[in-house]
Design brief:
The chain contains 13 helices and 7 strands. By secondary structure, the chain is mainly α. Strands 2-3-4 form a 3-stranded antiparallel sheet, with no helix packed on it. Strands 1-7 form a two-stranded antiparallel ribbon. The protein has a two-stranded antiparallel ribbon with strand order 5-6.
């Protein structure tokens, strides 16, 4: 972990693809054991690497087209050298276009749609595919299939939300909010170069990970800190976060300050509607004995 942190500080900006090669080679040189033995063909190693990058970028297979995926795989496998510099340029081009396409589609498709239309659309998709795992695990063949998979993904998020939310309109608001937040974070990470680097380093083995300087500092802080929480389990709703359980013996239980079903709208004056669960966690934790206003 320390070595990865030092390397990330070496290359804060990854605009030049030669630095990608240098970074990856440096990581491999410092690595004790690798899943890519020298006896394995370069094409096999490259295919494993690009598949890891594709999974990191589009885990639910709702952004990239099958033709784009195959083109990138062929590009990587065709490389006879260890360098992946030219292939990285292909990744940048394909991923950037896919992000633009997805952003435009989402903005266009959701504007005219009402909750009733969404319910009917998702019911139609459910009846057609019936949780077809093969369909879910394949890359979409067309833009129309991307649309279908996108709505089906929203449907699956909505199904979880319905376990503690009754209002159908609120369910969809939160489902889309969750997706947009994830999409924005993915886009930001890709543009910074971190997404590709994370996939490259994690491909070394299951114990290797890439951290940006900020993430590395946060990791060290969490390991050194003695921060505690308030002892509640929450789920996101439109207004903020709903308390779905209170941990026995925790601060909230001892003070008898909350009930299941209460909704947290502010934490120490900060409006938490729409914030990520990671952000909420940081607001709700602190040194033992510290005070937080909910």
């Amino acid at each position: 972990v320390a070595q990865m942190g030092e390397v990330s500080r070496e290359f804060p900006e990854l605009s030049q693809c030669q630095k990608i090669d240098s970074f990856y080679q440096s990581a491999k040189d410092q690595h004790i054991s690798t899943l890519f033995p020298e006896s394995q063909k370069t094409g096999d190693r490259n295919l494993a690497l690009i598949n890891n990058i594709l999974y990191s970028f589009d885990r639910f297979k709702i952004i990239l087209l099958d033709s784009e995926v195959k083109a990138l795989q062929q590009s990587f496998v065709a490389k006879n050298k260890q360098s992946i510099c030219s292939s990285y340029k292909d990744i940048q081009r394909v991923f950037t276009n896919a992000l633009k396409r997805q952003t435009q589609y989402v903005q266009w498709s959701l504007t005219p749609m009402k909750n009733k239309d969404l319910v009917e659309k998702m019911a139609e998709l459910k009846s057609i595919y019936k949780d077809d795992n093969k369909w879910l695990n394949e890359w979409p063949k067309s833009k129309n299939e991307i649309q279908d998979k996108f709505f089906y993904y929203i449907y699956r998020i909505s199904a979880d939300l319905r376990t503690y939310m009754d209002n159908e309109a609120d369910v969809f608001k939160v489902a889309f909010r969750v997706y947009f937040r994830e999409f924005a974070a993915k886009k930001k990470k890709f543009l910074r170069g971190n997404l590709v680097l994370e996939a490259m380093i994690s491909s070394l083995d299951s114990h290797s990970a890439y951290y940006s300087e900020y993430e590395f500092d946060e990791l060290l802080r969490s390991l050194r800190s003695s921060f505690v929480g308030v002892g509640i389990i929450v789920s996101e709703v439109v207004e903020g976060y709903k308390i779905i359980d209170i941990i026995q013996g925790g601060p909230a239980h001892q003070q008898n300050a909350f009930m299941k079903g209460d909704i947290i709208t502010h934490v120490s004056g900060i409006h938490v509607a729409g914030v990520s669960d990671e952000a909420l966690h940081s607001y709700l934790t602190g040194p033992e004995g510290s005070v937080v206003d909910l």
